[in-house]
Amino acid sequence: MMKIKRINVHLTEQEVEQRIRDLAEQISVHYGEDPLCLICILKGAAFFACELAKRITSPVELEFMSVSSYGAGTTSSGVVRINYDLGTSIEGKNILVVEDIIDTGRTLKYLMENLKTRNPKSIKLCTLLDKPERRAVDMEADYVGFVIPDEFVVGYGLDWNQQYRNLPYIGFLEIEE
Ligand code: IMP
Ligand code: MG
Predict the structure, then answer these.
(1) Which of these, 38, 117, 118, 147, is most buried using a 10 Å CB contact count?
(2) Is the beta carbon of 67 within 6 A of some atom in ligand 1?
């Protein structure tokens, strides 16, 4: 039986929100007046995508997609299932995929390949968190909020067994076996 010991705050609400403003500014400068379609990967990226969308000054369309990747324990296998697909075509659009975290990179590898086959005009990736030490496949984001060490994090959309998504900050979860 696993017991949660505590959650150590790693990034405060203020730090996260300031970084999101910075990212939104960079993204707005890049796209200018060109419309872009944000694809929020549910559920983890929901809080991040909404805050980011609010700060982008380019014309924004917001779409949602839900994927899950299966693997033993806490590592994803790269076998990805689309639980909920886009309700619209992305052909000819500027796409910015918004994800909560890149861990092994397997989920995004599959997802980015899948979206590219739908012929967007351009496709970029924005992630709130990046754990490069854990990477199993070649995957880099165009916009990264924070690079973090190899620790399990929760909050600001990220969960542990569907819990803690609603924390306004990002913390390291300490689990006692
Ligand atoms: P990947 O395919 O290994 O990159 O898996 C990425 C997915 O695993 C993310 O979208 C998260 O849902 C989940 N994940 C990876 N690391 C963490 C973490 O530290 N906390 C919460 N979820 C995580
Ligand atoms: Mg996720």
Answers:
(1) 38
(2) no
